[in-house]
Amino acid sequence: MDNQALILNNTIEMYNFNVLQMLSERGKSIFFPKLGILAQSAQAKGKTINATIGEAVEDDGTSMHLSEFETLVNMPIANIFPYAPSFGKPEFRKLWKDSIYRKNPSLKDTVISNPIATSGLTHGISMAGYLFANEGDTVLLSNHYWENYNLIFENSYRANISTFELFANGGFNVADFAAKLNQIEGEKIITLLNFPNNPSGYTPLVTEIKAIVAEIKKVADKGKKVVVLIDDAYFGLVYEDGVNSESIFVELANLSENILAVKLDGPTKEDYVWGFRVGFITYAIKGGCAELYYALENKTAGAVRGNISNISQLSQSLLYKVYTAPTYEASKKEKFLLLKNRYQVLRYEISKSKYAPYFEALPFNSGYFMCIEPKKGLQAEEIRMNLLENYSTGVIVLGNVIRLAFSAVPQEQLPQLVENIYNACIDLDKRKK
Predict the structure, then answer these.
(1) Does residue 399 carry a pLDDT above 80?
(2) 0.85 exceeded by the pTM?
(3) Mean pLDDT lowest for which of 59-63, 73-77, 259-263, 324-328?
């Protein structure tokens, strides 16, 4: 193992030995190189002649670029073309950290790490898998989950996915979550919580969040090392009162020295910039300090560097400019209200009694999506194909559940969407008779 990794491991061990036990073998071995090309390039910065970094520059020292780009992006050259640091742009990382506190006021003065930039949430989750999931480890998810989790945890890192039933009695199934949490063998537990949930569009109520956190603490109090990966991709898109409006990260950040909260978030869904590919990983644990977080940040940046080198300079620069604009909050609220109105229309339509014999909605209150379950023995895939072939309507099928992305449907088309599903169900029901 490289000595730079050993130094980081020793730092983690000094400030919280539990965290060292949570790391995968890859996580223990990784480091951000302070020697070699990066260090030598840093030492040469500002020198009269600098033949170190692998970028091309103009004779005036600015980044070499094609002139056609100058008419497309109105921004300083330094904010467009050069490599960004593997940690992320410093000013953007600080801005995002400040926003975590602003969006989650209950964090108060809890000490958290500095966010490390990732290439969107998918990459962030993959880096978390790299750092914490060994081959054969179990990752606990709800039974309604985003299919990319399979590609990341099972295919890439050879971990095993276990699931709990997400719903019981119209709400979060705390009992099954607790049961499955306690069934995981070994000293380390990895669970991933995704609220608002993709695909169901459900965020637990405030009371349910408290119960979930209590169950996590119970296993930690027994000595288990618990890594909680928090997929906050749809954070803030909550449309009902009583639903938890802050991240569960808040409740876990200072809960136990045996619980590491790993917040995975970013602007992709929150700020409608899907193609920008920017996300963040942020850590918190009871007793967390600058030295512990420094080691985790360096390991994370090392994983990023060894995986994709760094995140888009231009995307980070554009986001920083928008986030510091005086109109940003008003623009964000406008888009939130548009989605909330679609949610309310769909909720009204889907609850009409005439649809009840053919399908029912799973609990939903937030995010981009909601799901329905067919009745009368109808198969979701058959409904989907009928919708495509005869109703010019596309939906997603996961198992025998149909996911509807109301985020992608104009408000005036939502009643027709539900009606089309209803008619497709009638068609199939008639064929059975």
Answers:
(1) yes
(2) yes
(3) 59-63
Joined tokens for residue 366: 């937030």
Torsion of Cα atoms, 96 then 100 then 102 then 103, to 10°: 120
Q: Where are the alpha helices (DSSP H) in 16-89?
A: 17-22, 25-29, 36-44
The pLDDT tens digits for 67-100 are 888 889 989 989 999 999 999 999 999 999 999 9
The token pair at 177 is 């979550």
Contact of 183 with 175, CB cutoff 8 Å: no
The CATH number for 329-432, chosen from 3.60.9.10, 3.30.465.60, 3.90.1150.10, 3.30.70.100, is 3.90.1150.10
Q: Are 172 and 224 in contact (CB under 8 A)?
A: no
CATH number belonging to the domain at 3-29+86-323, selected among 3.30.56.10, 3.40.50.2000, 3.40.640.10, 3.40.50.300: 3.40.640.10
Residue 113, helix vs strand vs coil? coil
Residue 414 sits at φ, ψ, to 5 deg, of: -65, -45
User: In terms of Cα–Cα distance, which of 231, 188, 160 is closest to 25?
Assistant: 188
Using alpha carbons, select from 163, 256, 172, 166 the residue that is nearest to residue 207: 172
Q: 30-39: string of b/e by CB count within 10 Å (b at 16+)? A: bbbbeeeebe
Alpha-carbon span 406 to 417, nearest angstrom: 10
Q: What is the DSSP letter of 397?
A: E
Crossing angle of helices 174-183 and 206-221, rounded to 10°: 20
Q: Fill in the amino acid letter for 159.
A: A
Collect all residues with Cβ–Cβ distance below 8 Å to 275 and sequence separation of at least 6: none
What are the tens digits of pLDDT across the range 119-161? 999 999 999 999 999 999 999 999 999 999 999 999 999 999 9
Task: Report residue 317 as tokens.
Answer: 């620069």
- Nearest partner of 301 among 156, 131, 132, judged by Cα: 131
Domain range annotation of the chain: 3-29+86-323, 33-76, 329-432
Query: Using an 8 Å Cβ cutoff, are 177 and 212 in contact?
Result: yes
pLDDT at residue 52, as a whole number = 79
> Considering only CA atoms, which of 249, 243, 197 is closest in space to residue 227?
249
Alpha helices (H) along 16-157:
17-22, 25-29, 36-44, 90-103, 120-132, 148-149
In this structure, the number of other CB atoms found within 10 A of the CB of residue 410 comes to 10
Q: 115 and 266 in contact (C-beta within 8 Å)?
A: no
